[in-house]
Amino acid sequence: xSHFEPALDAAMKAHLxxxxxxxxxxxxxxxxxxxxxxxxGSLYSKVGSVYGNYISSLNTPEMQAVQTKMAPVLSxxxxxxxxxxxxFEKIEMMYEVREEK
Length: 101
Known about the structure:
By secondary structure, the protein is mostly helical. It has 5 helices and no strands. It has helices at about 5-25, 30-40, 40-55, 60-80, 85-95. Helix 1 runs antiparallel to helix 3 and helix 1 runs parallel beside helix 4 (about 60-80). The N and C termini lie far apart (about 50 Å).
């Protein structure tokens, strides 16, 4: 159980870095934006899947302590991921030009 906190921390940092790179990118083509968005957070997805399986199937006091500690951290991460300046605008731009392709 002790390995989840550092693994989730590293995965969250990588995820935010991926999203910030998309938001600050000067590229505006489909793959650079939506393809990159789809690939963003692959480590976070993998670690999160293992973590989710553990907390739902291994209900030990140690895992409960990890879950209690990480729940607000994971919640803050989700909020940060949705609030990266410029990211929504890039995705909205691709939505607006969808008919032109």
